[in-house]
Amino acid sequence: MIRSSSNQISRIPKPPNSMDLNSSPATPNSPAPIPVVATLSSPFDNPPPAQDGPNGSTRKPISLWPGMYQSPVTNALWEARSKIFERFFLDPRKDAPPQSELLNKTPSQSRTKILYNFSTDYILREQYRDPWNEVRIGKLLEDLDALAGTITVKHCCDDDGTTRPLLLVTASVDKIVLKKSISVDVDLKIVGAVIWVGRSSIEIQLEVIQSTQDGSDNADSVALSANFMFVARDSKTGKAAAVNRISPETEREILLFKEADARNNLRKRTRGGGDRRELENGEVNRLETLLAEGRIFCDMPALADRDSILLRDTSLENSLICQPQQRNMHGRIFGGFLMHRAFELAFSTAYAFAGLVPCFLEVDHVDFLKPVDVGDFLRFKSCVLYTEVHNPDRPLINIEVVAHVTRPELRSSEVSNTFYFTFTVRPEAKATKDGFRLLNVVPATEEEARHIVERMDAQALLSTNRVVSK
């Protein structure tokens, strides 16, 4: 996802019926939430009156919108910023200078809330409902990406309406953890703000909060948390561009800044660690153990362990041509759409593997390696990488989804993203099947075995570093 920064947002008039991202909050740390409304009309309601566009028409020019593939949240965010985008598109200045002076901004200045009125808006509720009366996680991932982009725009804007906008690109997503199930019958909100800034990078923390009876936003009500990393590029040169500085004020803001700074330092130390390393003796033994059963499957399938399955036999795949309706304002396919499609495939893979309805737990760190453009042939390939059954009450299914940008005319295929999802099995589903247990996944080749070992070690290292940073 690429976002364009804005200039002097607070001075731009609010269009009719739009949601103002910069409404004055009741307190500095409690901004007014953006209400989300259903984007579908009820057949039982009268259609709402049309609003005049900037040129007297009843619709905004199509060129001002990222595409018609929009969740209700994406629609609300774009509506709230529509006047900003109109100025950029209808009256562009090719000779506009870059921002000359960086500003100091506080996290509260970028803090934004999104409110889902599930309890009163039944059409919105139906748009987000999954078959188990919970919120569709794939749509929620889209919304997180859209909100993170809006927050980044708010932080990077300056007070000079003559400077050229920045290009803001989703660089990575830290682990997204689901802490409890999210009901679709209870109001929901997402709260986010910038928590850390480097020279040209910005980290945003988002929390999905399920409303409680007393309406409090205590820690126990946080249902999901995620951290997004954006990088800024000069819209003319394409080079890294400096962004406004951050000045944390409260104790919590200072703590979040220190934790994010530690994560950034860790990323720098481990940068380039993707190169294949030599395995140590203990790891070689683990690799051989994984390969032992796989060789029996390949060479003597009749004698193979019936409680195991080859990794390649757990795979699923789908493909699509990226359409203009899925683009952002710069013609690229936005990250939320990619995460949504990857999640749906991972869920299906876990379902087909377990034979019971899976329950999502987390998404591990995601790097957006290469941009995806409109018209690209995109292929998603998934597999069950390994399972963890040491806790029979909560067996874990680790799914890998790899997104490939394929260009047949160039005979090329490049990895755009790699996603790692963790699922378990819904307790109520497991209770219906006596003696349920997950199969053990085994590799058929040394390359598969090495990949499993490296992935297990990376997961253990990330978990250790997170515990230490806290």
UniProtKB/TrEMBL annotation:
Keywords: Hydrolase, Repeat, Transit peptide. SUPFAM superfamilies: Thioesterase/thiol ester dehydrase-isomerase. Residues 114-236, 312-429 form the HotDog ACOT-type domain. Residues 1-10 have a biased composition (Polar residues). The keyword Repeat applies. Signal peptide: none annotated. Residues 1-62 are annotated as: Disordered. GO terms for molecular function: fatty acyl-CoA hydrolase activity. InterPro entries: HOTDOG_ACOT (IPR033120), HotDog_dom_sf (IPR029069). GO terms for biological process: acyl-CoA metabolic process. The keyword Cell inner membrane does not apply. Belongs to the acyl coenzyme A hydrolase family. This is HotDog ACOT-type domain-containing protein. The lineage of its organism: Eukaryota, Viridiplantae, Streptophyta, Embryophyta, Tracheophyta.
